Amino acid sequence: MFNAQAISLKPITADSSTVVIKESISDALHEFKSLSHKEKRDRILEAKKALKDFKKNKSSDGNTILLCILAILLPPLAVYLKEGAINSKFWISLLLTLLFFLPGVIYALLVVLNAA
């Protein structure tokens, strides 16, 4: 879907950086407007998927530490906050926590630290 030949790379100089950026943006907009409806939709979907993957893979050390503490205290809640939805990992964590607390904590820590 991505056409590498359609993009032209221009070196940016310190003197005319704003002019080059404006030209690059206008070239990209012109190229995008010249695409068919299906190609536009595909590019938008690719961009949304890339943004979603970026947000999902972006991790903060502070959040990870807090999720680890929460995984020890309330394992299913930590899994829910990490996953962002109630899914199979949440239900497994809830079941393990209700049956035996320690396996629930271990599983939640594995999920929070991206090992599961």
Describe the structure.
This protein has 116 residues and is an all-alpha fold. The protein has 2 domains: 54 residues, no CATH class; 52 residues, no CATH class. It is 72% helix and 0% strand. It has 6 helices and no strands. Helix 4 runs antiparallel to helix 5 and helix 5 runs antiparallel to helix 6. The longest helix is centred in the middle third of the chain and has 21 residues. The relative contact order is 0.08. The mean pLDDT is 83.
Features:
mainly alpha, 116 residues
Helices and strands in order:
Layout lengths: L16 H17 L3 H21 L3 H13 L1 H9 L4 H12 L1 H12 L4
Helix pairs in contact: 3-4, 3-6, 4-5, 4-6, 5-6
In short:
The protein is an all-alpha fold. The protein is 72% helix and 0% strand. The protein is built from six helices and no strands.
Low-confidence stretches: none
Please, what is the average pLDDT? 83
Biggest sheet, open or closed, and with what strands and sense?
Answer: none
Strand content: under 5%
Structural class: mainly alpha
- The total domain count is 2
